[in-house]
From TrEMBL:
The chain crosses the membrane at residues 81-99, 358-382, 403-423, 511-533, 584-602. It comes from Paramecium primaurelia. It comes from the Eukaryota. Residues 645-675 form a coiled coil. Keywords: Coiled coil, Membrane, Transmembrane, Transmembrane helix. This is CSC1/OSCA1-like cytosolic domain-containing protein.
Length: 713
């Protein structure tokens, strides 16, 4: 009797109730947010049994304190690194360029130059095409790049530096190196038989005993969903009880008995096996690769547990992706049309000046939207075609794609228009009202301003608020369930998306910072604001399970930032001055480019610490297991390791069972729901909606075959 009451208390969350209790949903969201301390005698959420009243971290908390909540702290450390790199460049070269440009007088003397701050502080203000030369600025650019490379080498080689994103501890990588994926196993083999079989192997002519730390069976999720759906449909036909979902879907019910496991779980013939250290994993692969398909594993958090099925026409998706790559071409047409309008309306009146400036803002917004659409289309296509074995390749491709899209949308069109479009000198095309000078400044302000705004409330969160208002006040009798309401109040922080937006802004600053040094202070101020706003959002909305930042300080990001800074000097000169072979710094520039390319492609260890693949010991693996979960814990269907332990302990007496139940209750109070529980909670809603669609189609079909009353008469 006591056991039943405890089990009932552990499952009080009525996630399928409809309409939902929004106050409970709001409290559930509060209970999931990270906190520093718990308020004494705090109220608990009836759904997850977590504390609702908590003390949050102060805004001044050191970022490395948040390492216990996942990998999100890496994003903040990466922002710090980018801020430091830009600050180095601005202090050494940008500040001098800004001061010297402010001393120029070309804009004041010209009738075509719009008298604005961005033109006064621009290189154009002293950029005389006939006799321009600033060896000091070119020298400072070279020094700034060298100092940046020294700083990067420092954080790469100094393991104890908190800013070092590239070499901070990552225990999942240790587990990955000690693990292998084995396929072509007989589908009727049990976990114990698999462990017993693979514990004994032959390496050459010698028999070897392997120590298997973990064995995770991969099940067919589609089979589980199909069997549950059939069982639920049958139950609904028998008693028409909607809440019968709970007795068939809740995993602690359907997987308690061996016959239930045999019915619902279908072994796919593949497992993840973790050995005690890396060299043992290498020997294990050599022992069994002839009889089984043995391959290296992704990290536990990177595994696709369900076989990905391409949705829609793959050829059509590829065509959409190809069109997205050419999305910058219409921008050139729009830019040319705007340029022709400005030539016809040069801005002699104040109202016309405002109109021309407004057109530059419109152009900047069009560039921003078209860029986001292009990135989204390409990312969706890559997500559809990527698989476990090629995930690292597609990650690197998407990272390179960020640079190419930035170049195609933000760098080529302005230069192309400045050189080939309209009449007048190239300098006049830049600094006149509504010219490319204002276009570029508006592009910076748009990218920086929208990032700040979207940090507070992005499109997804705005849509989420609209849905909350709609269901809470206007559609109170909807079929929205309690689980969906809980999800509706949970704010998802996508730091990977934020990192892409921030990288685009920094590349723009690196490229146009030579021509418009004011871009550096704009970007630095924007990074500071974004950093503190993101930190505030993390402290007030951060949920441990949802916030991840799967990104490491890649060499490609460093390379394209530095090359953009270096290339901006020469491209601007060639575009507006033409090629001048007599300038000594032209040859110095090409020498720098050749040296950097040589370093990045052939001698990366001069800057980035070389990753030597040394055998990972069992001590390191045991240390990893304290901070990370193995593949079994990430398996959404069932944790076989935990289940097998519970199965072996079924013969203990009732008092021991009661004590274990109380211990489970205490564990649930101290920790959040497991991945398996979250999977089945989400599965309930998924099956509910699918069955509702089936019933709806059945009702429509019945209605269609009913005879018309007039025909009966």
């Amino acid at each position: 009797m006591q056991l039943n009451s405890i089990e009932k208390y552990l499952n009080v969350g009525k996630l399928l109730e409809s309409p939902p209790n929004f106050e409970m949903a709001q409290n559930h969201n509060k209970a999931q947010i990270i906190y520093k301390e718990i308020i004494r005698n705090s109220e608990r959420c009836p759904c997850c049994n977590q504390f609702i009243q908590t003390i949050k971290y102060p805004l001044s908390t050191d970022i490395n304190v948040f390492s216990e909540y996942g990998t999100s702290y890496k994003y903040f450390n990466l922002v710090k690194i980018k801020f430091i790199l830009l600050s180095i460049f601005f202090i050494i070269a940008g500040l001098y360029n800004l001061i010297q440009s402010s001393k120029g007088d070309l804009c004041i003397k010209s009738q075509t130059c719009k008298k604005s701050l961005n033109n006064y502080l621009s290189l154009l203000n002293r950029f005389d095409p006939e006799n321009y030369q600033d060896d000091v600025l070119d020298t400072l650019y070279t020094i700034a790049i060298i100092v940046q490379l020294v700083f990067i080498r420092y954080i790469s080689y100094n393991i104890n530096d908190y800013y070092n994103v590239d070499h901070d501890y990552d225990c999942e990588k240790t587990i990955q190196k000690c693990s292998l994926k084995i396929s072509s196993i007989h589908p009727n083999w049990s976990r114990d038989r698999i462990i017993q079989h693979f514990s004994n192997g032959m390496l050459g002519q010698n028999q070897v005993q392997y120590q298997i730390v973990d064995c995770c069976l991969i099940y067919d999720i589609s089979h589980l969903e199909t069997q549950l759906k059939l069982q639920i449909i049958q139950a609904l036909k028998e008693n028409q009880d909607r809440l019968s979902f709970n007795q068939f879907i809740a995993h602690q019910k359907i997987l308690q008995r061996e016959q239930d496991r045999n019915r619902y779980l279908k072994f796919s013939g593949s497992v993840y096996i973790t050995l005690s250290y890396e060299q043992e994993a290498i020997n294990f692969k050599n022992s069994f690769k002839l009889n089984f398909d043995v391959e290296n594993c992704p990290r536990p958090s990177d595994v696709y547990w369900k076989v990905k099925q391409l949705k829609g026409n793959q050829t059509l998706e590829f065509i959409k992706c190809a069109i997205a790559f050419c999305g910058w071409l219409p921008n050139i047409g729009i830019q040319v049309a705007k340029n022709n309008y400005i030539l016809s309306n040069p801005g002699k009146t104040q109202d016309q000046l405002y109109i021309n400036t407004l057109l530059s803002l419109v152009i900047a917004i069009i560039y921003y939207i078209s860029t986001k659409i292009c990135i989204q289309i390409i990312q969706n296509y890559i997500r559809q075609i990527s698989v476990n074995s090629k995930r690292q390749f597609w990650k690197e491709y998407l990272q390179a794609n960020e640079f190419f899209i930035n170049t195609m949308f933000y760098l080529w069109p302005p230069i192309f228009i400045a050189v080939y479009s309209g009449v007048g000198t190239r300098q006049e095309k830049l600094w006149r009202s509504g010219g490319l000078s204002e276009d570029i400044i508006m592009i910076f302000l748009t990218n920086a301003g929208l990032q700040i705004i979207f940090t507070i409330c992005d499109v997804d969160y705005a849509w989420q608020l609209i849905r909350i208002i709609y269901y809470k006040y206007f559609n109170k009798q909807s079929n929205l369930t309690q689980y969906e309401a809980n999800e509706l109040f949970s704010k998802d922080l996508n730091f990977n998306k934020k990192r892409i937006d921030l990288t685009n802004l920094i590349i723009l600053c690196s490229y146009y910072g030579y021509l418009f040094p004011i871009c550096y202070p704009i970007t630095l101020i924007s990074i500071l604001i974004i950093y503190w706003l993101d930190k505030y959002q993390f402290i007030n909305n951060g949920i441990n399970e949802k916030i991840k930042f799967k990104y490491r300080l890649q060499k490609f990001i460093i390379m394209m930032t530095i090359l953009s800074q270096l290339g901006s000097t020469q491209i601007i000169k060639i575009t507006f001055l033409g090629y001048t072979s007599s300038n000594a710094f032209t040859y110095i520039y090409y020498v720098q480019v050749i040296i950097l390319i040589y370093i990045f492609f052939y001698k990366k260890e001069w800057i980035f610490k070389k990753r030597i693949q040394t055998p990972i010991t069992q001590i390191e693996l045991n240390r990893s297991l304290q901070n990370n979960e193995l593949y079994s814990e990430y398996n959404p269907i069932i944790n076989d390791k935990r289940w097998s332990i519970q199965e072996k302990e079924q013969q203990v007496n009732e008092i021991q069972l009661l004590l274990r139940a109380l211990e489970q209750l205490n564990n649930q109070i101290q920790s959040k729901y497991s991945r398996q529980e979250k999977f089945y909670n989400a599965l309930q809603i998924k099956l509910l909606r699918e069955i509702e669609q089936i019933q709806k189609k059945e009702r429509v079909g019945i209605a269609q075959i009913q005879p018309i009353q007039n025909d009966i008469i």
